Amino acid sequence: MLNKSSLIIVVLIVLLSGCDSTKTKTSDKKQVHHIVLFWLKDSGNQAQRQEIIEKSFSLCKISEVINVSTGEVIPSERKIVDDSFDVGITVSFANKDDMNAYTKHKIHNDFVEEITPLLEKAVVYDYNVNISQ
């Protein structure tokens, strides 16, 4: 069994490793970020948060995915910050067509099916990315 320090190190390594860095995609269309926020039925349950985080990296296996980043909420006292959710995931795509293909992919659908019993609610935000030069 991992102690807390070891677990934090393992999680950081996984989070920083991202998806296969050889997946460089270019397109005339704008890159897209797909953000999903999850609220657990058992809000704050650390084991369930970790389960979603770990399972989210299966999404890297989908060819249209450029990158997956995930983690748990950062509590905040700032009124403008919504810290009511438990886990957030950001998935990056070369374009909207790739995002649409991802939503129909078996790995994505299996992920959704596996975590849905844990969830009270999920909210999705999709946007085109403009990157500063």
Give a nutshell description of this structure.
The chain has a single domain, classed as Alpha-Beta Plaits, CATH 3.30.70.
Just give the CATH class. Alpha Beta
Indicate the radius of gyration in whole angstroms: 15 Å
> What's the architecture in CATH terms?
2-Layer Sandwich
Q: Biggest sheet: strands side by side, in what order?
A: 2-3-1-4
Overall average residue pLDDT = 85
Strand coverage percent: 25-35%
Annotation field: number of helices: 4
- How many strands? 4
* Secondary-structure element string: HEHEEHHE
Overall shape: globular
Helicity level, as a percent range?
25-40%
Counting helices, strands and paired strands, the structural category is alpha+beta
Do you know the CATH topology? Answer: Alpha-Beta Plaits
Low-confidence stretches: 5-17, 21-28
Amino- and carboxy-terminal Cα gap: 45 Å
Task: Tell me about this structure.
By secondary structure, the chain is of the alpha+beta class. It is built from 4 helices and 4 strands. The chain has helices at residues 4-17, 46-56, 96-104, 106-115, and strands at residues 32-40, 65-72, 87-93, 119-128. Strands 2-3-1-4 form a 4-stranded antiparallel sheet. The longest helix has 14 residues, at 4-17. The radius of gyration is 15 Å and the shape is globular.
